[in-house]
UniProtKB/TrEMBL annotation, chain A:
Taxonomic lineage from the root: Bacteria, Pseudomonadati, Pseudomonadota, Alphaproteobacteria, Rhodobacterales
Top-rank taxon: Bacteria
The organism of origin for this protein: Thioclava pacifica DSM 10166
Protein name: Formate dehydrogenase subunit delta
From TrEMBL, chain B:
Organism: Thioclava pacifica DSM 10166
Gene Ontology MF terms in the entry: 2 iron, 2 sulfur cluster binding; 4 iron, 4 sulfur cluster binding; formate dehydrogenase (NAD+) activity; metal ion binding; molybdopterin cofactor binding; NADH dehydrogenase activity
InterPro entries associated with the record: 2Fe-2S_ferredoxin-like_sf, 2Fe-2S_ferredoxin-type, 4Fe4S_Fe-S-bd, 4Fe4S_Fe_S_CS, Asp_de-COase-like_dom_sf, Formate_Dh-H_N, Formate_DH_asu, MoPterin_dinucl-bd_dom
Claim: Repeat is one of the keywords in the record: yes
Gene Ontology CC terms, in alphabetical order: membrane; oxidoreductase complex
Pfam family, one: Molybdop_Fe4S4
Protein name: Formate dehydrogenase subunit alpha
GO process annotations (BP): formate metabolic process; respiratory electron transport chain
Keywords: 2Fe-2S, 4Fe-4S, Iron, Iron-sulfur, Metal-binding, Oxidoreductase, Repeat
Length: 68, 961
């Protein structure tokens, strides 16, 4: 799985939630947890360093479920 | 056998014809031939008689059309009325006393018939309509025994006394599916009226008066006229003047089986009229609730692919995609496939394999394929082609309303006052719905079209002034939020509805967001390319309409903000109170016949059947109990994710039922790379499709004519698909999937698809009441169908939203990353044409290709002139993903800066050009916006030539020994 593409997808999700009321970072994490397969989340979490992440994605990182 | 069931009272359209359309009104009682009859006010005497079981002779009347009163065969006597009025045009009155058969009437009718027959050939025995001709029937009914008129002027004979007969017009065979033989025409005008009233094309007219009157297309022949070959005129014709060529070739059908069309999401009901196991013709079923007796050229005529020589009828395998295919037995192919899947899982883990369910196959088949993934392979890696069309509908409507489905039935269009059509082209993509909408537009309903292209609907005959918002591709959200801005700031919203039905706090938040001057039409007009005043006019028109309905297509969903656009649509409907009754609503026009069904059946990797998330313990428990296994609570991979994982080396085997991802999915190079990286690709299809060039196993599929099951159309209607002939390759698709599952050790033992539907009903609350017995009994049923809605639900959210309170969600515009610049200054958008269907695997194998034999690039005269492009020139179409070549056509239907093409032909390779941009929520590809450059070229691109060469290499089949 291409980590750049995953970071890009995460940033796209963040750009939707940045205009929403409520806990935006949690919303980003919830969306990723509900829709991304575990392998996608694992790859993303393993390779997020060095990616140009939207601030909301960075804030959501702790809430994104990886390998237990 | 369940495949010979014809619901009660249906014996074929011509025998059950009531003469004039049904009416609604207060009951009126009259006496006909001594019998009391009670019918609704406005009903004709003819129909009232038919209700009482009395058939009044008729030729120009049919219940598909308003009465016309020209043939004078249906005359009756009515006490107190002078003369003999036509029963078709005379409305009933309380206390009326009618006689349908007297000596006077008999004499008059014989006289009329005698005149008709005097100018009609008497070749009944060799006529294509022999046994199926209303003129013949009526001659018998009125007791015609002689024709006293000496031969004279006529339209029948090729020669007159001296030289050729100037009145004779030769037969027109230009349409591939039906002929027009003017010598048999009685000028009853049924064809002209059908073209106007039912289809709405107005392609036919009558030339001349009296004896000189002839039916005409106004052009040389049918093929070169405005005719769209829907077949309504053929169906309406009482003689052999307009008749299917197949009837002429084969003979009259001897039985009819009601089934459902397998093309678009309208899901028309048809009578498959058979002789033995040979299909003679498909005739739209008048009692079909989606189509009400109408059809389009695809469903009515384009079924020849089912018998096409390209069909693969034997399973085939090969070790490598460069090997020739080897024909093998089903057992060997399934064993080979199962070994491939097991080997991948053993080496790369259980999630290294997956399935793609087909939105072309039945609910039962789709259910089995996702069950195969979840319960047998042990992975949630299942997806369907809805990924690339309506997955944003799933997300957007679930978030706002609580479930992923259109809110109305198609009948609802008859009560619409203002139709908003967004990113859809119904007269091409959903033609039967397009005709029904046009009928309502002729009655005075308003029309707002939000589309970069001037679609044909805007040019409907006899409609009022439509409003067209020719927006710049990719700015849907900005347009819809601007409409919301006008409705909020001008206080055009329905406060009572919002207070009762929606969350008031969320509404307040949304209203504050929409009211921001940054979202005003004036602020965004430069971005979207539509004048602010036009936007304001559109918002006011929609909000003011008593019933406003939104219909939308893939021009909404196939964008990087597809899901946000669906949410914006739901917001508009809620704020104007246009939800929960006939005539309103949010109506996604689904692409494929069973997109709705494949989504309902749990094809998506994150949702079990009935749209329940895989992490929902209670929902999982239902299936774990039913299937005696444990299910993964984590979402699986979506199609683009599977391909990404394949390229990364983590995804090794796939079972694809009835989908051609290499042609239909975006960024062809990437799809090809993904498929090439897999060890075991199993393609289950009718033809060696484009994807099959990367396949190791080919399982031959069955057409909709060869199996039982159900399709669910865009209005949630579950329609029966009935087997009319045995599967040509031996197994129906559900049987093949079962055999594959069993080769993997599943131990399934379904013997009929009704058992699969029973399993769906047991496990899925919205289908709890659905049984084959119910559908056979009432014709079709719209889900939810359960204890509270035992006969189904034509309109959803009537008393409250599925999720409780309707939810408003902010819709901020985020520009797509696909931007024009110096290298790629134009925006490409894509769509469908009437005569072809999606990747064209079916329609290209029919004579529909006479209307569209290649994809063309539509370009505005201004852009063409700048590039020196003339009509019909070969042009090179390039994006940052790739390039292809096709011929250009110059039209102002597209705005300057926008080009458009269809994607029906594999040699065009339009998806070589589209990018891997996708919707933020669902990964639905952004087909509708690609930055491109267009330039003159000499012919096909290098890629197209390479592809052609590869086609030859990968499609070899070893000669049988």
């Amino acid at each position: 799985m291409n980590p750049d593409k995953l970071a890009h997808m995460a940033n796209q999700i963040a750009r939707f939630f940045e205009s929403q009321p409520g806990d935006q970072a949690q919303a980003v994490a919830d969306h990723i947890n509900a829709n991304w397969a575990p392998a996608m989340r694992d790859t993303f979490l393993a390779h997020h360093a060095g990616q140009d992440l939207h601030p909301l994605v960075s804030a959501a990182l702790p809430e994104i479920r990886g390998k237990g | 056998m369940k495949d010979l069931i014809i619901p009660d009272g249906i014996h074929g359209p011509k025998l059950s014809d009531m003469g004039t359309p049904a009416k609604k009104g207060a009951p009126v009682t009259l006496v006909i031939d001594g019998m009391d009859v009670t019918v609704p006010e406005g009903t004709s005497v003819m129909r009232a008689a038919a209700e009482a079981g009395i058939t009044v002779p008729k030729l120009c009347a049919t219940d598909m059309l308003e009465a016309y009163g020209s043939c004078r065969l249906c005359v009756v006597e009515i006490e107190g009325m002078r003369g003999t009025p036509a029963s078709c045009t005379t409305p009933v009155r309380d206390g009326m006393v009618v006689k349908t058969q007297t000596e006077q009437l008999q004499r008059l009718r014989r006289g009329v018939m005698e005149l008709y027959i005097s100018d009609h050939p008497l070749d009944c025995l060799t006529c294509a309509a022999n046994g199926d001709c209303e003129l013949q029937d009526m001659a018998g009914a009125v007791g015609l025994r002689e024709v006293r008129y000496a031969p004279g002027q006529n339209h029948v004979e090729t020669r007159a006394a001296e030289g050729p007969n100037p009145l004779y017009i030769p037969r027109d065979d230009s349409n591939p599916y039906f002929f027009y033989d003017p010598s048999k025409c009685i000028v009853c005008m049924r064809c002209v009226r059908a073209c106007e009233e039912v289809q709405g094309t107005f392609a036919l007219t009558v030339d001349g008066r009296g004896f000189d009157a002839r039916i005409s297309t106004g052009t040389d022949d049918f093929l070169n006229s405005d005719c769209v070959s829907c077949g309504a005129c053929v169906q309406a014709c009482p003689t052999a003047t307009l008749q299917e060529k197949t009837v002429e070739e084969i003979g009259t059908p001897e039985r009819a089986i009601i089934t459902t069309c397998a093309y678009c999401g309208v899901g028309c009901s048809f009578e498959a009229q058979m002789r033995g196991d040979q299909l003679v013709r498909m005739v739209p079923w008048k009692d079909g609730k989606a189509n009400r007796g109408h059809s389009c050229v695809k469903g009515r005529f384009a079924w020849g692919y089912a018998n096409h020589g390209d069909r693969i009828l034997h399973p085939m395998i090969r070790e490598s995609i460069t090997d020739a295919w080897r024909e093998v037995s089903w057992e060997e192919a399934l064993d080979f496939a199962a070994k491939g899947i097991k080997a991948a899982q053993a080496k790369h883990g259980k999630d290294s394999v997956g399935v793609i369910t087909s939105s072309r196959c039945t609910n039962e088949e789709t259910f089995l394929v996702q069950k195969l993934a979840r319960a047998v392979m042990g992975t949630n890696n299942t997806d369907t082609c809805a990924r690339v069309c309506h997955s944003p509908t799933g997300y957007g409507l679930k978030q706002t309303f609580g479930t992923s489905a259109g809110t109305q039935d198609f009948d609802s269009v008859e009560q619409v006052d203002c139709a908003v059509v967004i990113g859809a082209n119904p007269t091409d993509g959903h033609p039967v719905f397009g005709s029904r909408l046009r009928k309502r537009l002729r009655q005075g309903a308003g029309l707002i079209v939000i589309d970069p292209r001037r679609i044909d609907l805007l040019e409907s005959v006899h409609m009022g002034e439509g409003i067209h918002l020719p927006l710049r591709p990719g700015t849907n959200v900005a347009v819809l939020t601007a409409l919301a801005h006008v409705i909020v700031t001008e206080k055009l919203y329905d406060e009572a509805f919002i207070r009762e039905r929606c969350d008031w706090e969320e509404w307040s938040d949304y209203a504050e967001f929409a009211a921001d001057p940054a979202h005003s039409p004036e602020a965004v007009e430069a971005l979207i390319g539509v004048p602010a005043e036009t936007l304001r006019q559109a918002a006011r028109t929609y909000a003011a309409a008593p019933n406003g309905a939104i219909y939308y297509g893939l021009g909404v969903t196939e964008h990087s903000q597809g899901s946000t656009t669906v949410i914006a649509i739901a917001n508009l409907a809620m704020m104007t109170g246009n939800i929960g009754r006939p005539g309103v609503g949010v109506n996604p026009l689904r692409g494929q016949n069973n997109v709705q069904g494949s989504c309902d059946m749990g094809s998506f990797p994150h949702e079990l059947p009935g749209y329940r998330h895989v992490s929902d313990d209670a929902a999982r428990a239902v299936f774990e109990t039913e299937w005696h296994t444990t299910l993964d609570p984590e979402p699986g991979l979506r199609i683009p994710n599977m391909l990404d994982a394949a390229v990364a080396g983590d995804f090794k085997a796939i079972y694809i039922q009835g989908e051609d991802i290499l042609q239909s999915d975006p960024d062809t190079h990437h799809v090809a790379a993904g498929l090439a990286a897999m060890d075991c690709v199993i393609v289950h299809d009718l033809f060696l499709n484009e994807t099959a060039r990367y396949a190791h196993v080919f399982l031959p599929g069955s057409t909709f004519l060869e199996k039982d099951g159900t399709f669910t159309n865009a209005e949630r209607r579950i329609n029966m698909v009935r087997k009319v002939m045995a599967p040509k390759a031996g197994l129906a698709d559900w049987e093949a999937t079962q055999a594959l599952a069993n080769a993997l050790g599943a131990g399934w033992s379904y013997t009929h698809p009704s058992q699969i539907m029973a399993e769906i009903a047991r496990t899925t609350p919205s289908f709890a009441g659905v049984t084959y017995e119910l559908i056979d009994r009432i014709g079709s049923v719209q889900w939810p169908c359960n204890e509270t809605h035992p006969q189904g639900s034509p309109v959803m959210h009537e008393d409250g939203f599925v999720r409780g309170k309707g939810r408003f969600i902010r819709t901020a515009y985020v520009a797509t990353e696909e931007r024009t610049g110096p290298r790629f200054p134009l925006l490409l958008t894509t769509g469908r044409i009437l005569s072809q269907y999606n990747v064209g695997a079916q329609t290209r194998r029919t004579e529909n290709s006479v209307w569209h034999d290649q994809d063309l690039l539509e370009i505005h005269p201004h852009d063409a002139e700048q590039r020196g492009i003339n009509e019909g020139d070969w042009v090179r179409l390039a994006s940052r993903s790739g390039e292809t070549s096709l011929r250009a056509t110059i039209t102002d239907r597209v705005s300057p800066g926008v080009v458009y093409t269809t994607f029906h032909h594999p040699d065009t390779q339009a998806n070589v050009v589209t990018t891997d941009n996708s919707d933020w929520a669902t990964n639905c590809p952004e087909y509708k916006v690609t930055a491109v450059q267009v330039a003159l070229s000499n012919g096909p691109s290098d890629w197209q030539e390479l592809y052609e060469a590869q086609t030859k290499l990968t499609r070899r089949v070893e000669a049988a020994e």
